[in-house]
Amino acid sequence: MGDCLYLHIGEDEIVFIKDIIAIMDIERTTTSNITREFLKSCGDKKMVITVGNDIPKSFIVTIRNGKQTVYLSPISASTLYKRALLQMQEGRRKGN
Length: 96
Description:
The protein is α+β, with helices and mostly antiparallel strands. It has helices spanning 26-29, 33-44, 77-94; strands at residues 6-10, 13-16, 20-25, 48-50, 58-64, 67-73.
C-alpha cells in the first residue's frame, strides 16, 4: 500500500498508515511504568508532538525515514483504529 493511505489523528495532523507502529490508549497504558518511561524518554529526545489543545486520549508511534515520532492525540485509540481500518479497506478497493 502506498503513501496515499493516511490517518487523520486530530486538528490538521495526519500520519501515513504504513508508518504507524502502534496506536495506544493513554489511560490504559500509562498505568505501566514502562510506558511512562517510554513517553518521558521520547519527550526528553523531542520526539513527541501534541496534537491540539485537548487532553490526549491516545498516542501513536510512527517511524518514517528512520525517525521515530510519538503523537499525542485527542482522539481515542479505538476511533483511530477504526479510521485506519476504513482507510485500508478503501485502499484495497481502489487498488492501492
